[in-house]
Design brief:
Length: 131
């Protein structure tokens, strides 16, 4: 039985808690396997075959194949583990974050340089000035 989670209704936010960690254990383990060069080569040679070696759900496997990072987070993926996937693809964290927000990498970078999104837009917002 899960504890009460008052943070579940934060717009645009998924909190990686113990329940989500359990749900994503095999997904995150797969991601960590990509730290080894031989595993990255095997994964890139035949992604589906490599994924089938892991006890992930079909939804998790499809999320990896589609590089749907938002869905993978819902399915228990931790962004720091998921980073191993986009690094394997030769992509930056900024590239992945832009995909996750539906923006181009250039628009995402500009938005972040200008203080991020407002709370009404969801996501990061500009920190108050310290006087």
């Amino acid at each position: 039985m899960s504890l009460e989670k008052p943070y579940l209704d934060i717009p645009g936010t998924t909190v990686f808690d113990a329940d989500l960690a359990r749900k994503g254990y095999h997904l995150n383990s797969f991601c960590m396997s990509l730290m080894e060069v031989d595993n990255r080569r095997r994964f890139k040679a035949n992604e589906r075959a490599y994924l089938d070696e892991w006890q992930m759900t079909e939804d998790q496997k499809q999320g990896v194949l589609a590089r749907d990072y938002n869905r993978l987070i819902e399915l228990g993926g931790n962004i720091y583990f998921l980073a191993k996937i986009f690094a394997t693809d030769g992509k930056s964290f900024q590239h992945a974050a832009a995909l996750m927000t539906g923006m181009s990498q250039e628009a995402y970078a500009e938005m972040m340089l200008n203080g991020g999104r407002s709370p009404e837009q969801g996501g990061a917002c500009k920190a108050p000035e310290i006087k």
